[in-house]
Structure formats: C-alpha cells, structure tokens
Specification:
By secondary structure, the protein is mostly helical. Helix content is 80%, strand content 0%. The chain is elongated. 13% of the residues are buried.
Length: 164
Amino acid sequence: MIIGLTIILLLVLVLPFTKPVEKNLEIFLFIMGVLSVFVSQVWSGDLIKEALVHPINITLAVLIAGLLFRWFQTPLEKGILGISKAMPYRLFIGLFVIILGLISSVITAIIAAIILVAVISVCFANGPQIGNSIGCPCQLCHWTGCCINTNRRAAVNHCGQQIG
C-alpha cells in the first residue's frame, strides 16, 4: 500500500508539468484520487456520499461570484479604474494586496482569484492611463506578489475555506 501511494504521489508531483496532463489536470487529479482510494482500500458509502455532497457549496459560491462579476463587469471596471487613477499606483497595489490577502480566507481563495483577475485585467488593459510611471516588468512583479500573498494568506487562515 505504501509503495502504491508513493508512486501515486510521485505521479501527481511530476506529471502535471507535461503537456497532456497539464491540459487535462482536473481529470488527472480525479483519477489519481480514485486510484489512491483503491490502493488504500477505503471505499465506503460515506466516502462516496461526502465526495458528491461536499463540493456543492463551493461550486455554488464560485458560480454566484462568477455570474455577479459578469453582470456587473462594466461598473466594476470603471470603479477599479477610478480608484487606481485617484491614488498613486504603488499605494493602490499595496492596499489591494493587503485587503485581498486579509479577506481571501473569508471569501475563499477561488473568489479572491476572480477579483484579482478582474483588477489585473483592468490595470493591464489601461496601463498607461492609470498614471503609473512603472514599466510593465515591475508591474508584473507587483501583481505576481499579489497572487502569492492571496494564496498564502488563504492557506494560512482557514476560517472561510469551508463554506456551509
């Protein structure tokens, strides 16, 4: 059993860096999870029930957040652009990173990522217009730091990760 689980672990750590698995990552991870259950011999009715019921809440939360972002995309983009023009660019990035990092564990990391993508797309699409004198490579570094901070913060504090 330990050898089988070790092989599965190595496959999960290595194969996602290959093109075929990268394009079908969700299916690959699902198959690896099923194989892990088979190798561990822990199939049960409770496990199947939990696997079917548990993802419903997070799926609904992400679906609702995605729909809200689609419906209110234009006002959100105008608001983000207005706020980014009203303050120095570095202050905007700094405050955004801090606030999103703090709330990412409450709103889930997935919804924080949706917010992050919305803000990044507005800032990159309107780069020269938002009053920053920072070049694109430095701008990219700031946004990469924001991504890392959001995910690290959500991983450290799990208060909002279990919805429902």
